[in-house]
Amino acid sequence: MPMQKIINEPKAFVDEMLEGILLAHPESLRSPARRVLVRAGAPSEGKVGIVTGGGSGHLPLFLGYVGYGLADGVAVGDVFASPSSEQILEATRAVDGGTGVLYLYGNYGGDVMNFDLAAELASEEGIETSTVLGTDDVASAPAGPESRRRGVAGIALLYKVAGARAEEGASLEDVVAVVERAASGLRSMGVALSPCVVPAAGEPTFSLAAGEMEIGMGIHGEPGVGRGSLEPASEIAGQLVGRIVADLPFRSGDEAAVLVNGLGATPREELYVLFRSVHAALASSGVTVRWTWVGEYATSLEMAGASVSVLRLDDEILRLLDAPCESPFVVRR
Amino acid sequence: MPMQKIINEPKAFVDEMLEGILLAHPESLRSPARRVLVRAGAPSEGKVGIVTGGGSGHLPLFLGYVGYGLADGVAVGDVFASPSSEQILEATRAVDGGTGVLYLYGNYGGDVMNFDLAAELASEEGIETSTVLGTDDVASAPAGPESRRRGVAGIALLYKVAGARAEEGASLEDVVAVVERAASGLRSMGVALSPCVVPAAGEPTFSLAAGEMEIGMGIHGEPGVGRGSLEPASEIAGQLVGRIVADLPFRSGDEAAVLVNGLGATPREELYVLFRSVHAALASSGVTVRWTWVGEYATSLEMAGASVSVLRLDDEILRLLDAPCESPFVVRR
Amino acid sequence: MTASGLAGYLSVAADAVEGSAAELNRLDGYAGDGDLGITMSQAAEALKDVLAGSEGLSVGQLLSSCGAAIARSAPSTSGTLVATGFLRAGKALADPPVDTVEALVRAFEAALKGIEARGKAAVGDRTLVDGLDAVTDSLQLSLSSDLGTAETLELAARSAKAAAEATAEMEPKAGRASWAPERAKGHPDAGCVMLAIAMEAVAAHARSG
Amino acid sequence: MTASGLAGYLSVAADAVEGSAAELNRLDGYAGDGDLGITMSQAAEALKDVLAGSEGLSVGQLLSSCGAAIARSAPSTSGTLVATGFLRAGKALADPPVDTVEALVRAFEAALKGIEARGKAAVGDRTLVDGLDAVTDSLQLSLSSDLGTAETLELAARSAKAAAEATAEMEPKAGRASWAPERAKGHPDAGCVMLAIAMEAVAAHARSG
Ligand SMILES: Nc1ncnc2c1ncn2[C@@H]1O[C@H](COP(=O)(O)OP(=O)(O)O)[C@@H](O)[C@H]1O
Ligand SMILES: Nc1ncnc2c1ncn2[C@@H]1O[C@H](COP(=O)(O)OP(=O)(O)O)[C@@H](O)[C@H]1O
Ligand SMILES: [Mg+2]
Ligand SMILES: [Mg+2]
Ligand SMILES: [Mg+2]
Ligand SMILES: [Mg+2]
After folding, report:
1. Which of A193, B242, C205, D9 is most deeply buried (CB count within 10 A of its CB)?
2. B20, A331: Cβ pair inside 8 Å?
């Protein structure tokens, strides 16, 4: 079956995408090594560097968060596949401003192993690193101290928090402290309405009949907590918010930042319809929405569906979310 | 066939979306009347007001361009349907700063009639209006002085130009002059790879077999100039740029702004793959790309596909494109 | 013609158009965007809402109210043009003639003129204007031949039908269909078919009582 | 064991894994993301590129080069773990034993230890580790029983197959499959199946001479 995609050779997909990105944004990004991107001005002397990475196919994740007030460098994997430790090490070297580097990425086996390996190699070169993992997907495993949960769209909020704090000149330890606090108060869950097609595979990642939805599906098509008939937006919001609120748990009186994220093919109009219901569902749990992003922040190619992320706020986290940021993909003044 | 959509009642779709948008962006937008949005601070005394409008289902078109350095107000129609003259008149009243109002929108029969009617009513109330139409789609009709061509994604660039000039304090006449010049040097063309489903209709707008594409299709599924087998990205870029360059015509030595726009379901990765080839195709015609937007600027719900818009630059137009702008959907610093 | 008599005619016309929504979407889909049935159903609903609260209105006021309601609820190309037609017809009958056929002639003449001015399409451009022009001609002929209401509407419905059929071989020169003229070939203009359906319902209503 | 002899074994193993890509994708798809065949084909290609330019390398250097190439070209979970295995095996055979079975034991012991450390999975978690553990046990037994290379590999391939089959009834406790343990039920772990396929190819190669 031919794929309805605007591509050339599937094998050239990631490299041609990167060429396009570098052509479009030469003032913002540069590539110190193959499939490695850093801020044009990196390293920033004295500033904690932030390196992220992961598979392609999730734009604006991961490379779209390389910019002012966000991350400094990224290692770009193949579609839905980890980058190598070598790429991560290159990114680390290119952004190290002498005060250490934060590794901030999602909790996936391949990524963890490669970032861990890169951390060992960096340490041999005298670069200190610390790691914080995104583990926000409540649908992926029961809660636990050594979380096995995968990271999904919520990481966008962690970049915002980490990047703003690093921009303030905080030490690696202080950046880690606030990002860990944010990560521990962050929960996400999504719903998929259609699969996507990885160019090199040429086939849908899973199948879903018209009128069905999969609650809790991961951003690579990993199975969720259940498949059922497609519900109205208000029902979907109720289910997602219900699980998120119960899990942390959020309590009446809590203030929160909310990210309603589109997986790729779901129109922005639907995301706002969903946000309207998410807002109401949180209000009925006594949670006040103080900060909002609605749009595509972590996608799965052309998958249809959406995820909801809720982050418990305190004064410092809200200040950092409100700070300006600017990458070619994410701008906030 | 059930629709794979996150919605409630199809009839409530537009109003619930607007509720969501107002909940998410209360500092930026307010609604002076049903299905009318204006900048929170409108009117700006002494500034030329800019009113746009059109059907829903095209986010960020049209309401996403209400913001600083862009438009001031918008009349929001049903999905793919015009707003009423009454809504347009309400928007006009709410943004009139005493120095006249520009009507800037796409060339569609229903929109034209309703904006014309609103202009007559506004004039009776003493509000001067001028109209500039987006007519950038080269695939919709042969070129001609009284253009019958429809407006597509290129209008995003016209908002940018008009809004920045109005923000500089220019008169209505001066704003109109530069926008007309920009509009006359603007050409677009797109390719569709899948249809979309209008919620109230419940059925795809057209059918397209896997492995097919429709060159020149309009943003509501209006037929294009031809259907053929799906080509590689470089071929698609060659065809679109070829028609655009020949039509104006662009000449060797011209400088241009380029917008590569996703129609809804096409991943951002593919848009950059396409941009890479568009850049090369323009270069081979001697046209230099000086300014770029790649992303979703004018969509058709969950339609897969993309369009390319090319705008001939002069110093003033480039200055206006480079000026900052900020709406909840489009930010440039 | 009384306002309540007029309301009866409008009501059957609205029902007929709504009942043909799928067919109108289909016809609009050949070279347009396939939404004429949706738009015209919205217009029909708006019209019926007005009829439901129309007690005490004059014929002219009733027509004007319908026009205003349609303009608000169905503001696409056809909706805006139909609304314009109602508004102009309402104005033309502000001072209502006693004779029904004369009233019809005045109303349709005014509607046609208004729609031509608003849409800037001429006879032969393959739009609603072609159908309206044929109906207006037929009504004028009936008036000069002193026919009764039922025969007049019967003839008008037939002309609307014939005019709609004739559009199948015309090249579209206005509106969306003009962007893909080849695709329109062989299919009648959706707006003209809609007018024919409405006129046929009105004629049947006159026939039956 | 010579480097060129080793290259022959690696080459047939790589071909076998590549030839089973669709099957590996399918198995990884039950509870994972369905890309094991893609990833392992990339690893196989990288490995064959190294083999093509391996003249003059020692056994240890060859294994290490394969590990480095796989780490670069196939950096997903399984690729990184396999790369780790090759790197550790290469180190363990830096000083190559003359006896092939002894070499196999040292290589697999080192690989297993490295993979356990990198992946933090234990025996019983339903991962590659279960297969590797079984193969290593079998190799150790063959060494202490003084078996020849062909019989040793035959037995190792059989243990790999049995270990893979046994995973079908185990609950996944590491990697992607642990996110949807019920969906894994009844299907063998894809990584273990991959190992069994590679070992079977290697055993067949030894059998055929
Ligand atoms: N300029 C015009 N003047 C008169 N009638 C027109 C004009 N343009 C289109 N029409 C009529 O409107 C019909 C389409 O109406 P509609 O579907 O509401 O339009 P759209 O979806 O393009 O806004 C056509 O079949 C034609 O009869
Ligand atoms: N922590 C781990 N330790 C050892 N092996 C593992 C681990 N996690 C997964 N595996 C193995 O890797 C296989 C999946 O590999 P792969 O498809 O590359 O992973 P992913 O796509 O999740 O990155 C599993 O079948 C399992 O055998
Ligand atoms: Mg994977
Ligand atoms: Mg329409
Ligand atoms: Mg239409
Ligand atoms: Mg996998």
Report:
1. A193
2. no
Alpha helices (H) along B220-314: 233-247, 268-284
d(CA A49, CA C43): 60
Let me know if residue B1 belongs to a domain.
no
If you count residue pairs, one on B and one on C, with CB atoms under 8 Å apart, how many are there? 81
**pLDDT value at position A203?**
84
**Closest-CA residue to B258 (of B330, B318, B196, B198):** B318
Q: Which ligand is nearest to the CA of C27?
A: 1
Which token pair is A4?
């309805």
Q: What's the pLDDT band for A138 if we cut at 50, 70, 90?
A: very high
pLDDT at A1 over 60: no
Give the model's pLDDT for residue A99. Answer: 97
- Ligand 1 centroid – CA A275 distance (Å): 36
Taking the C-alpha atoms of residue B192 and residue B265, their distance in angstroms, rounded to an integer, is: 10
Average pLDDT over residues A24-52: 98
- C103 in Cβ contact with C59 (< 8 Å): yes
The pLDDT of A300-314, averaged and rounded, is: 98
Residues A5-29: pLDDT tens digits? 999 999 999 999 999 999 999 999 9
Question: pLDDT tens across C25-60, in order?
Answer: 999 988 888 899 999 999 999 999 999 999 999 999
Interface of A with D (CB under 8 A): 77, 80-87, 108-110, 113-114, 116-117, 140-141, 148, 150, 198, 200-201, 205-206, 218, 220-224
**Which residues span the domain enclosing B279?**
186-321
Give the C-alpha separation, B175 to B131, whole Å: 11
Pocket of ligand 1 (CB under 6 A): B 109-110; C 28, 32-33, 35-36, 39, 76-79, 81, 115, 119-121, 127-129, 174-176, 189-192
Paired with B79 in beta bridges are B56
C-interface mutation test, from B222, B225, B227, B300, most C Cβ less than 10 A away: B222
**Residue to test with chain A: of B273, B289, B299, most A Cβ within 10 A:** B273
Q: Do A304 and B60 make contact, defined as CB atoms within 8 angstroms?
A: no
What CATH number corresponds to the domain at position D34? 1.25.40.340
Determine the Cα–Cα distance for residues C62 and D56; give it in Å rounded to an integer: 98
Q: How many domains does chain C have?
A: 1
* A267, A236: one domain: yes
Q: Which residue of B has its CA nearest to A15?
A: B273
Q: Say which range, A58-72, B15-29, B69-83, B138-152, has the weakest mean pLDDT.
A: B138-152
Closest residue on chain A to B299 (Cα) = A267
**pLDDT of the residue at A194:** 95
Inter-residue contact A18 to A69 (CB < 8 Å): no
D54 pocket-lining for ligand 2 (C-beta < 6 Å): no
> Which ligand sits closest to the CA of C83?
1
Residue A248 is given by DSSP the state T
Given a cut of 80, is residue A2 above it in pLDDT?
no
Claim to verify: residue B245 and residue B273 sit in the same structural domain: yes
D67 vs chain A: nearest CA distance in angstroms?
12
Do both B164 and B279 map to the same domain? no
Contact B65, B52 (CB under 8 A): yes
State in Å: Cα D198 to ligand 3 middle.
Answer: 20
Interface confidence, given as ipTM, is 0.94
Could you tell me which residues come within 8 angstroms of residue B153 by beta carbon, excluding any fewer than 6 positions away?
Answer: B61, B136, B188, B190, B219, B259, B261, B297, B298, B307, B309
Helix (H, G, I), strand (E, B) or coil at A68: strand
Is A5 a domain residue? no
pLDDT for position C98? 82
Strands (E), chain B: 29-33, 36-39, 49-56, 73-79, 101-106, 129-134, 186-192, 212-215, 226-229, 255-262, 288-295, 305-312, 325-326, 331-332
Question: Do B77 and B36 belong together in one domain?
Answer: yes
Do D46 and D72 touch, CB atoms closer than 8 A? yes
